[in-house]
Amino acid sequence: MDKKVVLAGGTGFIGQYLEEKFNHLGYEVMIISRQAGHISWNNNTEIVDAINHSELLINLAGRSVDCRYNAKNKQEIMNSRTETTNILGNAILACDNPPSLWINSSTATIYRHAEDRPMTEESGEIGSGFSVDVAKEWENAFFSFDLASTRQVALRIAIVLGENGGVMNPFKNLVRFGLGGPQGPGNQQFSWIHIEDVYQIILFLKDHEELSGVFNCSSPNPVTNRELMSHLRNVMNVKVGLPSPKWLLELGSVIIKTETELILKSRWVIPERLEREGYKFRYSTLDTALQQILKKS
């Protein structure tokens, strides 16, 4: 039987990258999505059939958090993560040959705002507020399943950097239009990871059958927001970058229907477990990551 990988919520920026990579390795890639042309979240029979006899299930499903946190959007953000996770867990229980590994997305924003010290899996402090509540409920739904034949790994993913999507286009536009200075205080930590390392970490976890539980999926070298914008200006060869004070960000977030938390929260997250287990990052520094991503700019 052909090797098979299932990508749940696999039509976004990360999912498209993983689909291409696993296809290149010779895997059949099955995608569960709300978009037409893929397995529907409403078709439990097809979900079970797809997951059955697969090597790996990767869940990336979740409504974008790039929106205003009103009551309707909050409920959709929460449900899109917990309900899909529950659907997948129950589908695995219905398989006669379940995957050996289920990787579920989580988020590095589960930790508190941190400017004093980095957050690791063992010593990190869980934060408070809506985004943290979503992360906790997401992980609770995931680890509520007791799966005898399937390892479970929750990836607390930092901001993913790569070509053709994610946060790079908005940041590039800010720099191009002369607004590439520090945002807010500029001291807030920016934890990030190159999309190639997300893929390589998945392969690493697949091959290391003794590993399970929570892993921080982030570069070992986070930077401050001020350093981030400086690196972007340097790589893009833009000399001037005006700062964006907090009041301006608050005003702009209302206009473009987003939340300033996405920029102002200090995410200082270190991949302690991955490094301890021997994972070697392809892009460990922001400069090397940006050079690769922006080489065509």
Please sum up the structure shown:
The protein is α/β, with parallel strands linked by helices and 297 residues long. Helices cover 40% and strands 14% of the residues.
Instruction: Give the strand content.
Output: 5-15%
Distance between the termini: 43 Å
What overall geometry do the principal axes of the alpha carbons give? globular
Q: What is the helix content? A: 40-55%
Strand adjacency order, main sheet: 2-1-3-4-5-9
Count of β-strands: 10
Main beta sheet = 6 strands, parallel
Structural class: alpha/beta
Give me the Rg, rounded: 19 Å
Mean pLDDT: 94
Q: Helix-strand pattern, N to C?
A: EHEHEHEHEEHEEHEEHHHHH
Outline the low-pLDDT stretches. Answer: none
What is the count of helical runs?
11
Can you put this structure into words, describing what you see?
This protein is 40% helix and 14% strand. With 297 residues, the protein is an alpha/beta fold. The chain has a domain at 4-166 and 191-220 and 268-281. The strands form three sheets. Strands 2-1-3-4-5-9 form a six-stranded parallel beta sheet, sandwiched between helices.
Topology:
Blueprint: E1 4-8, H1 13-24, E2 28-32, H2 44-51, E3 56-59, H3 71-93, E4 101-107, H4 130-143, E5 151-157, E6 159-161, H5 168-176, E7 189-190, E8 192-194, H6 195-207, E9 213-217, E10 223-224, H7 225-236, H8 246-255, H9 261-264, H10 272-277, H11 286-293
Helix pairs in contact: 2-3, 3-4, 5-7, 7-11
